[in-house]
Amino acid sequence: MPLNEIYKHQKESNDKALEVLKKDFLTLRSGKVSTTILDNVKINYYDTPTPLNQVGSVLATDATTITISPWEKNLLPDIEKAIQEANIGVNPNNDGETIKLFFPPMTVEQRKESAKQAKAMGEKAKVSIRNARQNANNKIKALEKEKEITEDESKRAHDQVQKNTDDAVAKVDAMVKEKEAELLKV
User: Do strands 56-62 and 99-102 pair parallel, antiparallel, or not at all (unpaired)?
Assistant: First the structure.
């Protein structure tokens, strides 16, 4: 396996970690409510766990309200139960036609808690990036052991892998810092 393959694989792993971090950030609540807070809520639809946005329309009608209009009215109790079990910090209001979620304005404590969660998500991404570094380094050591690359090439390859890791970690830090600033801004 040539070194470029190893770098490419590491970069793909790092990019995937950054994508996952972006998706994780979408589940955090900031000052303005977003329908992405419901992305992980699934209901049992014909024995299949199904996201809410596939059984009805999910709209943020204003800064603090989300309205869910199921395409089949008989799903209302299931949706209500799924939202309660998801524990997203609000109780669903079922009016027989739609379910409305009224989010109170966030307190300073809630904002700090969300910022803390963002930091934890960033750490999880960094662990993933470090694992990619370890995999790449192990492959390089194997190539050197098999005498497919020289000791100098191995050293340069390890340096390149570390540089790739540092770049990815810096991106994570920047993303976390930006998300924290957004979350803490009133």
Answer: unpaired
Cβ contacts of 7 within 8 Å, gap of 6 or more? 136, 160, 161, 164
End residue of a domain, out of 87, 102, 117:
102
Q: Which of 71, 102, 133 is the last residue of a domain?
A: 102
Residue type, 160: Q
d(C-alpha 37, C-alpha 50), whole Å: 15
For residue 55, the enclosing domain spans: 35-102
Both 85 and 123 in one domain: the answer is no
pTM: 0.70
pLDDT band at 109 (very low <50, low <70, confident <90, very high): confident
- List the Cα angle 43/41/120 in 5-degree steps: 155
Task: Please check whether residue 8 is in contact with residue 132, taking contact to mean a CB–CB distance below 8 angstroms.
Answer: no
| pLDDT value of residue 106 | 80
Q: CB atoms < 10 A from the CB of 128, how many?
A: 18
